Amino acid sequence: RLQPYYDRADRPRINAWQTLVNHHYGLRDPNAPENRRTLVTPNNLPKAKQEAAEAITRGLEALYRAGAIKTRQDVTEALTAAGFEVVRTTRSSISIADPEGGRNLRLKGALYEQSFTNGNRLREETERASRFYREHAEQRVQEARRVCRQGTELKQAENQRRYQRTYNIRETATGYAEHHREHAAQHHRGRTVPAAEKPALAGDQRAGTVSGADRAQRHGRHFPGVLGADSV
Questions:
Q1: Which of 34, 41, 84, 121 would be a feasible disulfide site paired with 79, CB 3.0-4.6 Å?
Q2: Which of 97, 106, 136 is nearest to 41 (CA)?
Q3: How far is it, in rounded angstroms, from Cα 139 to Cα 135?
Q4: pTM, to two decimals
Q5: Which residues of the chain are under the pLDDT cut of 50?
Q6: CA distances from 220 to 208, 211, 223 (A)
Q7: What is the DSSP letter of 183?
Q8: 209 occurs within a structural domain
């Protein structure tokens, strides 16, 4: 079974390829510190949950700008005060229970990360991290080239090992063509050629025969006394 993508093995190669494409075309780099989003949601999130997550994040951003939120603990308390039940926290997200009993809503982004510990310094830290990120852009691109090339070579070798053929296609095609030509030649030599396919001959020769007059004329050249016109 062909498996074109296996996340654990292929993600580094895909991420490296993304870095190279963004660098080559000057595209917006989603990994740059200044481009970090306050809310990150999966593509398959239902529309209602997507809208709820966006509304919650907008409310938290307003509190952050007002200075009421400075740490992730403040975020958790703000969610609880708004009537939400915080059911799980991880290094990069906070999950709240669905009021209607559905699946938990996972909130992921800059505001929900464990590293959000000092709101007053968040902007300064982001600017410093952005400068560092830009200064090391060339090193990052070189490393991406190495990872992408190595990953591609490993993927190619793995596919050739797992899906190798038992014969060489080019050699097989060449051998078949030669066999076909030889078979056709043997068939042509062994068959009787219809009269209609044979070329017409000079004089009265047709279908490989020679008329009596032609034979007499030929013999007359060698024996002049046979034909009155050639006799002496």
A1: 84
A2: 106
A3: 9
A4: 0.49
A5: 193, 197, 199-210, 212-213, 215-216, 219-232
A6: 21, 14, 5
A7: H
A8: yes
pLDDT tens string 120-153 = 666 777 788 899 999 999 999 999 999 999 999 9
Tokens of 220: 């007359």
Count of the separate structural domains present in the chain? 2
Residue 196: inside a domain: no
Let me know if residue 208 belongs to a domain.
yes
d(CA 170, CA 165): 12
**Domain stop point among 91, 107, 135:** 135
Q: Are 179 and 187 in contact (CB under 8 A)?
A: no
Q: Determine, yes or no, domain membership for 2.
A: no
pLDDT in tens, 90-120: 999 999 999 888 899 999 998 899 888 877 6
- Please report, as a single letter, which amino acid is at residue 23: H
Q: CA nearest 57: which of 69, 44, 43?
A: 69
User: What 3-state DSSP class applies to 70?
Assistant: coil
Based on the fold, state whether residues 43 and 123 are members of the same structural domain: yes
Give me the domain span that covers residue 44. Answer: 32-135
